[in-house]
Amino acid sequence: MAKEKLIQTSHTCKEVLIQKNNHPEEVIKEILAEETPVAIVYNGVSHVVMMVSPCDLEDFARGFSITEGIIKSLSEIYSIEVIKKDNGIEIHLEISTEKFTRLKEIRRNLTGRTGCGLCGAESLDQVLKIPKNKKNESKFSTNSILKALKKFSGQQKLQKKTGATHACALFDSKGDMIILKEDVGRHNALDKLIGNALINDQLDPKTQYITCSGRLNFELVQKVLMTDIGIMIGVGAPTSLAIDLANKFDITLIGFVKRDSFNIYTNNKKVIVG
Fold first, then answer.
1. How remote is the C-alpha of 204 from its chain's centroid?
2. N or C: less crowded end of the chain, CB within 10 Å?
């Protein structure tokens, strides 16, 4: 069906007309998640193209810049401009000369698929050597985690509309949600979450943890490492490399969260009963 229109909501979706195979005479409306190629451009040089839900793009660019180690602080971003093109979107960032020079030295070009891929690391050593600034000894209760997960599933508005997106959320020690971001890619949602938390000065690693839909893989754990958050929760299971990385840097990984239970895969000392 060719007819479609852009729906202006807090999330960008498209409404399409479809037919069911068992009722071919009936035409019904369905809401789809929009997916757009987004190029991140530093100081006039395109660095990466990702497939992204076209909302919260400044947060996405900030978070990506931090979690990929391109900058250490948002103060190193001097300006951000989002430019719509006929074939996608470009996010132009002006960063410090020092960081741009370093970026050119480790230049990584790729086209990502829905936020996946190791963002062009040139060698295995680059992938596996991840800086960790502080050791996080924060502890959180099982009740807080279970409370958070109930809220997490209920607040994914775009997923409820489309059935095609992921979400990441930031919770405090009481299990109350601070920020939630959705995107067609988990990695993008996490970058949007981190970027938003940092620009609004809402990130406090000692009292917070992050929850993600789906599995926890190496890249997600790698991104969370850059924030000093000590606990990461996934609705699905972690991968083996994610567990290896979490053990190396003392992150607690929790997965397979059910209504009243979950699995602790690493560093269980940070989870207390009650």
1. 17
2. C
